[in-house]
Amino acid sequence: MNNQVLLEPIGKDEYELFFGPAHPGSGNFSVKLKVEGEIVTSARANPGYLHRGFEKLMEYRLPIQNAVLSDRICILESLNWNLIHAEAVDELMGIEIPERAKYIRVILAELSRIQSHIIWFGVFSIGTGFDTGFKMAFGYRDYILDLFEMITGGRVYSAGYICPGGVRRDLPKGAEEKILNVLDKINEMVKLEEMGNPALSARAKGVGVLKLEDAIRLGATGPLLRAAGMRVDVRKEDPYEVYDKLDFDIPVRKEGDAYARYMIGIEEIKQSMKIVKQALKDMPKGEHIAPQFKKPKLNMKIPEGEVYVRNEGGRGEVAIHMVSDGSAEPYRVKIRGPSFLHMISVLEFLLKGVQIADVPAVYWSLNICPADLDR
Amino acid sequence: MKGNLKNEEQLLKEIVSNYNVEGKIQREKRVWINTDKENLISICKFAKEKGFEHLSSISVTDWIKEGEYEITYHLWSYEKKVLLTIKIRISRKNPSAPSVSSIWDRNAQIHEREMHEMFGVEFKGNDDLAPLFLDDWQGLPPFRKDFDWREYVKKEFYNKDNEREVVYRE
Amino acid sequence: MKKESSKKKSMKKIIKAIWIFNWFNSCGFCELVPVVGSRWDMERFGMIVVGSPRHADVLFISGYQTLKSIKVAQRIYEQMPDPKVVLALGSCTMTGGMYWDSYNTIKRLDDYLPVTMYIPGCPPRPEAVFEACSKIFQHVKEME
């Protein structure tokens, strides 16, 4: 009953607005705003339009089947979710992965992060009125999707390419030159974005300021902490795969507003390109999958135990807690997505005292994905 | 892997000497502790003073054969770069636990709200336990082990008279 | 008879360009937006995306629907003026797909909305979406 569309007057100038899922500026998520005149006095998030219950769906399936299901937790960065599920199963089963497979995993994860940041610019630009940015971003994103199709077989969903034990197939011939060509094209796009646009900076500067103490108290992670001044990244503090052997920087800004978050996204694309070039150079020759997974048996049992794995996704900290009781399927899987706290606690905090016209700029600058909130 | 576990060992020694708990070091940067409901709030306050200011997640596991729920709290410290996990066990009939939202604020409140909706756990001290994802759900809390999804889906959605839609597994 | 033929003539005049309502659910977002973008530009065929259901002719249901979001889709369908067309995109919408044993998704869209055309795939490629849109023009000519 409390989820119906309401537009009723409360006081003299106050009324309720429903910024809902069918609004062109909002995605698959809705927020109920209490507005007085032009200023928002309070907001309450209303998620649940995409809830499928992934955590229990995974309890009915084997780990090989789960590798295909884990793509679909968040469509915007599907290979990163594939990677963290494979890491959780590897650590539970105690498998040693060959070096070449680790480098291939890192290359694909960084390409997926670049693609996800490009989508972020596209929708942020259209939310603040810069329409050319949207068309430009989605045009350049298609180069990366063609590359995914050549390596993994699918444009958006890779059908479990990063599976427990390594990767399913080795890189095809000619993949390395093609990757370097695509990175040159993305370099052009970064130069164009850096020039900036007066409409975008006027609407994004000084809006949605999040200071460091509030960010840590509300549970924000990833680019939101970096835009507020803290140099933190899971790839450096809690390294996984081969990130401790690669050399890259962490960009940091002090202001904490929407424009600072936008500029950090551009810097992160440059750092990801640096990582991919290093990984291509250092990659050794060898096997691409652990020997016991070459022809996996369907009733391979997972040993008893539990494990907690953390990764750095494009939007923040990503984690999986997996428990097993000795049978072939996992007993309990808990998925922690970055948007869970960003969209409920940080958004409600930032929307107090903002004008209605600034609501899309604040909303899209947090880089949210409703699918990994609802799972 | 690296061999230098000084931070983890010191942390475990401090906690074990102050409170009567069992713990172990699983690998580099991972410390796990088992305790009970009464000591939970004091251990959490102690951890927060030692620098564990980021609550990564709260999760519930349903051990139906033993008749217990196990609640796990994962805490990360930005200075020490160590993950501390605290586990408690409560009974499955009328499950209730103290809330840690007095220590970690909105972060903990929202995680507890989700666990209340999915498993039915009452968190004492949390004043906002309204449903988050589901709209007018009358039935068992969905993630419990005695709620079989495949049986439910066969009854609600699939037509018994239509032969092509009979669902079976092996 | 006279009433029907004049209605058909006026409909043929109306449907020369298709306006699509902006309801990109779940998986459809990632494969419908390139159709709008610059590689597979759909504006050259006369199709644009509008923001209000009162201006739209076509409703794309592009992805799995949950019990909460199908209520919103039904309300949008009722607000669209005649003649209107519903397209179901993706295998999860038509048959339940990969989430067949989930308690919160709907398994058959036919039970909730009258569907005109089905586009299979997971997710379907942009070329498949184009072929479906070109068939809409043909469908309108044969419609009564």
Question: What does this entry look like structurally?
Answer:
The complex is a heterotrimer of chains A (375), B (170) and C (144). Chain A contains 14 helices and 8 strands. By secondary structure, chain A is of the alpha+beta class. Chain A has a single domain (54-336), classed as Orthogonal Bundle (Cytochrome-c3 Hydrogenase, chain B). In chain A, the strands form 3 sheets. In chain A, strands 1-2-3 form a 3-stranded antiparallel β-sheet. Chain A has a 3-stranded antiparallel β-sheet with strand order 6-7-8, covered by helices on one side. The longest helix of chain A has 29 residues, at 99-127. Chain A starts with 13 loop residues before the first strand and ends with a helix. Chain B is an alpha/beta fold and 170 residues long. Helix content of chain B is 29%, strand content 26%. Chain B has helices at 6-18, 40-49, 101-119, 149-156; strands at 22-27, 30-34, 54-63, 68-76, 83-91, 96-98, 122-124. In chain B, strands 1-2-5-4-3 form a 5-stranded mixed β-sheet, with helices on one face. In chain B, helix 3 links the parallel strand 6 (96-98) and strand 7 (122-124). Chain B is elongated, with a radius of gyration of 20 Å. In chain C, strand 3, helix 3 (67-79) and strand 4 (85-89) form a beta-alpha-beta unit. Chain C is 40% helix and 12% strand. Chain C has one domain (18-142): Rossmann fold (3-Layer(aba) Sandwich). The longest helix of chain C has 17 residues, at 126-142. By secondary structure, chain C is of the alpha/beta class. The model of chain C has no long low-confidence stretch (mean pLDDT 78). In chain C, the strands form 2 sheets. In chain C, strands 3-4-5 form a 3-stranded parallel β-sheet. The N and C termini of chain C lie close together (11 Å). Chains in contact: A-B, A-C, B-C. Chains A and B meet through helix 1, helix 8, strand 7, strand 8 and helix 12 of A and strand 3, strand 4 and helix 3 of B.
